[in-house]
Amino acid sequence: MKTCWFDQFGPARTVLQIGDRQTPEPGQGEVLVRLHTTGVNPSDVKKRAGAFPDLLDIGPVVPHSDGAGVITAVGAGVQASRIGERVFVYQAQHGRLHGTAAEYVAIDSLRAPRLPDSADFDVGACLGIPVLTSHRCVFADGPVTDQRILVTGGAGRVGHYAIQWARHGGARVIATASNEADAAACKAAGADRVVNHREPGWGEQVLDLTDGEKMDRVIDVEFGANLPELLKCVRIGATIATYSSTVVPEPSLPFRTMMFMDLTVRMVIVYAMPEDAKAQAVADTQTLLTSNTLQHRIADRLPFEQMAQAHEIIEEGSVRGCVVVTI
Predict the structure, then answer these.
(1) How many CB atoms are closer than 10 A to CB 155?
(2) How far is Cα of residue 129 from the mean position of the Cα atoms in its chain?
(3) In terms of pTM, does the model score above 0.90?
């Protein structure tokens, strides 16, 4: 089967290899998926660059967590009726070497849920990490009906879906963005108002938009950098759910201030989500896909032979939306 892999860390054009490798067989509880698309996420390019030094200890890695395709075979314990089912794949390259940058992937049946007919395979490749992360951030601490939710970086992969989950949950949403185009995308996704997080004092601008009413929850993309502004606009007892802190990777917390605000900080990563949370996120995603009420932003589509370029696009950090590679 056609496969992309790396056996050393480094730049995409240097270490990513494309060639033929043996097609896997589905084991106990697994399905074999013939992939039509694979999605490239920031975590994928970070792994390839060496963020996890022991990743290559047991062999070459076929990268990528997300993808979409059709089940062609099943292992023991999986109903044969799943053969021919359209699916999206998530968490493929976690705790194992074989991700979705290949023609086929053998994976736990739970990690290959049904992809409704209303969604194409490009969309399927965008769902895993961004959708599950955003769902967890929004709903991990209970219903959000009538709550005020702030989504920082609302035009990004996770933020774009977080706005939608919050609105579907009945919340009022304010988002942050850095330019007019991104602000428009936030509003199209369901944000009521948008502030520019590049402007000094944007936390106070949030309060200006709400007549002083503070946020109940925050879905945050840059915890360390954003925390000083968030503390200006969250209420006592608020929750900050964060999934990244790249600019300030080791934040220093104003403990006394946060303690007297009775704040909850929730850190979210898909791999560590409870299984029931994953199952609920998948079910809710399938419902919105079926009704065509979930928006998607696909920034670029590239052929398999341009896998290195797909990684480079993600690393540049300028795209808003998913980068999909066709197989």
Answers:
(1) 26
(2) 3
(3) yes
